[in-house]
């Protein structure tokens, strides 16, 4: 039976001192008669209604063992709690449980989180990235505004929207109201698109049918989109990553023949292309449409439409988005500390 709160104890003691019967008091505060009798006897012996002090459950680890647990997991971040419990016998019990180790780690403010996955970088990659950062560390926002940032992105028709929380009671995890249908690998079809974002006058959004190879990249994207776009703006530079279709010899020769300046991009560089923010905004706007797309054709149409809406909106506002230019300026100017 739950413990009687302190205010009800004082109330029960007042009713007893007022002459009420023990059974009536127990019925009034919704507890057992034995509880009221124990309360009455405790007040008679100690003059108070609070419980006797309790020692609590004895700790199974010593202070030295707590330091050992904390130090072991600080030295090896991937160490499992079960491993530490197996090699650290308890003070009262030779077999310590893993939950005890987790409790000590929580008391030491060592939380649990997933590791951040990063690229495998050789010394050559680090030197190239450091040299690139040194070359562009003094670029101003005006310099970054003269770069045409381009990239491809894949949009799935059905895809999970990150972490989704559901509030449920015990044993209700698998009820229909608490489950969500979804395809693990983004089934239902997908659309790959290409786009470019300078400060203003965005390029058109190109829907790519099938795989993108060097020939299709040259004939379907560079020739009708990039070359015509940069010929009207001779002071701009093209930026694209180091995928095979972008770094092929035929593509490099094609850009040289058209006098297209290309921004060097280090191999395995951190994905700092500001167009990634635009892809995220485009994805959220498509998902927020009143009638969601039901097939690949509708998805492609919604992407093109929302792309135009975003470009017109940002052009009318004439906003220098910090996530595009100031973000690059700050990140690349401070990246030297990472590689040196």
From TrEMBL:
Gene3D superfamilies: Ribonuclease H-like superfamily/Ribonuclease H (3.30.420.10). This is Tc1-like transposase DDE domain-containing protein. Residues 10-58 form the Insertion element IS150 protein InsJ-like helix-turn-helix domain. Residues 188-289 form the Tc1-like transposase DDE domain. PANTHER family: SI:DKEY-77F5.3 (PTHR23022:SF135), TRANSPOSABLE ELEMENT-RELATED (PTHR23022). It comes from the Eukaryota. GO terms for molecular function: nucleic acid binding.
